Every structure is written in structure tokens, then in C-alpha cells.
């Protein structure tokens, strides 16, 4: 497994080892021991699965407030997404900065999104199955989001007119969002 550190401290791009032959491939998408050896210590307690039927579906930018904040481990089983994280940790040297990554069934990459980050993705193919682990259960009262098109963030999405849920079309800008995340130097 190869772990690539992001400029956003705590975000990690993970490249699992895949073993392929004429039949296809095999890989371990999660092995607690190997992840811990690579400094990923989260205790994941739930697996989630979303299907987006069309290209151009944008889901995000989501997060849960502390104490119910979630670390997520995201991967794509079919199709491809442009996956984006935004640092929401007040006082962080990278507060309000974002990074985007292509995750696909072909590159088999995974993204670790720690607590304190908003997360969202846009499908760039049809029939996209996204699987993700979380280390905290969903909590409706802590569920929040920021605008996918926040002008201050200036995220470069692969679409200009995405397919959104009603909820995702109404999130506030980062500067107006509920935010109880604080930067902690580790």
C-alpha cells in the first residue's frame, strides 16, 4: 500500500496493491493492521454505499459537527468521481483551502478524509458506485454542509451545472457555515 500525504494535513491518498491477471484483479481494500502500520488509526464502524446513475451528479460538500464528526475512507467500485475536500479547521495553516482527486474503478485509489474537513464529489461517468467507511454514525442534528459553488473557495469542478439534491443546493458559504472545528497541531 502506498500512502500519499496531501498539502492538507491529515488527508491521505491511498493506493492499495492490486494483483491482476487475465481474470481480473484482487486487492485488500481495507486491512486494519496494514492501515495502522501506515499511521491510519481510525476505528471504522459503518460502511456506506451510494449509486449515482448519471455523470454530473454532485454530492456535497458534507460534514458533521463535533462531537459527531466523521473520518471517511472513500473508494469507487464502478465508474469515476472527482473527489474534493475542504479544510474547515479554524486556525489551520490551510483553512479554507481545497484539494481534488480522481478516484475510479481503474486507479483503485482511496481517500482518507479526517474530521474537520467538508467532503463532496462529482461523478464523471455514469453508474458510479461509491463505497465509504466512517468512524462515527450519521447524526441528523450534527449534519451540515457548505456550498459546492462557494466563490471564496473557487473549487474547480468538472461541471458547471451539476445535478444536485435540494439539500445540497441550499448549503451556506464556508464563512457563514456552522463550524466548531479547531486546528490542533499534532
Secondary structure category: mainly beta
Instruction: Describe the strand arrangement of the main beta sheet, using strand numbers.
Output: 1-2-10-7-12-5
Percent of residues in beta strands: 35-45%
- Total strands: the figure is 13
CATH topology title:
Jelly Rolls
Please state the oligomeric state of the protein chains shown. single chain
Number of domains: 1
Helix content: under 10%
Q: What string gives the helices and strands in order?
A: EEEEHEEEEEEEEE
Largest sheet: 6 strands, antiparallel
Shape: globular
Poorly predicted runs of 5 or more residues:
none
Q: Can you tell me the CATH architecture?
A: Sandwich
In short:
With 186 residues, this protein is mostly beta strands.
Q: Which characteristics define this entry?
A:
single chain; 186 residues; mainly beta; Jelly Rolls; six-stranded antiparallel beta sheet; five-stranded antiparallel beta sheet; 13 strands; isomerase
Description:
This protein has 186 residues and is mostly beta strands. The chain has one domain: Jelly Rolls (Sandwich). It is 3% helix and 39% strand. It has 1 helix and 13 strands, in the order ββββαβββββββββ. The chain has one helix at residues 32-37; strands spanning 2-5, 12-15, 18-21, 24-27, 46-52, 58-64, 72-78, 80-87, 98-104, 110-113, 117-123, 128-134, 143-145. Strands 1-2-10-7-12-5 form a 6-stranded antiparallel β-sheet, with no helix packed on it. It has a 5-stranded antiparallel β-sheet with strand order 9-8-11-6-13, with no helix packed on it. A two-stranded antiparallel sheet has the order 3-4. The radius of gyration is 16 Å and the shape is globular. The mean pLDDT is 97. Residues 166-186 are annotated as: Disordered. GO terms for molecular function: dTDP-4-dehydrorhamnose 3,5-epimerase activity.
Amino acid at each position: 500500500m502506498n500512502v500519499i500525504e496531501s498539502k492538507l494535513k491529515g488527508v491521505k491518498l491511498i493506493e492499495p496493491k492490486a494483483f491482476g491477471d487475465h481474470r481480473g484483479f484482487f486487492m485488500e481494500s481495507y486491512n486494519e493492521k496494514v492501515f495502522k502500520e501506515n499511521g491510519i488509526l481510525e476505528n471504522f464502524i459503518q460502511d456506506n454505499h451510494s449509486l449515482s446513475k448519471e455523470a454530473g451528479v454532485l454530492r456535497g460538500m458534507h460534514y458533521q459537527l463535533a462531537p459527531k464528526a466523521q473520518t471517511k475512507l472513500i473508494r469507487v467500485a464502478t465508474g469515476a468521481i472527482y473527489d474534493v475536500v475542504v479544510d474547515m479547521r479554524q486556525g489551520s495553516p490551510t483553512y479554507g483551502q481545497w484539494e481534488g482527486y480522481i478516484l475510479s474503478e481503474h486507479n483503485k485509489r482511496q481517500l482518507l478524509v479526517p474530521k474537520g474537513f467538508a467532503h463532496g464529489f462529482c461523478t464523471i461517468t455514469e453508474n458510479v458506485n461509491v463505497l465509504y467507511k466512517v468512524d462515527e454514525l450519521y447524526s441528523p442534528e450534527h449534519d451540515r454542509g457548505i456550498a459546492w459553488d462557494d466563490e471564496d473557495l473557487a473549487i474547480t469542478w468538472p461541471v458547471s451545472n451539476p445535478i444536485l439534491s435540494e439539500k445540497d443546493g441550499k448549503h451556506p458559504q464556508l464563512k457563514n457555515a456552522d463550524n466548531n472545528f479547531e486546528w490542533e497541531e499534532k
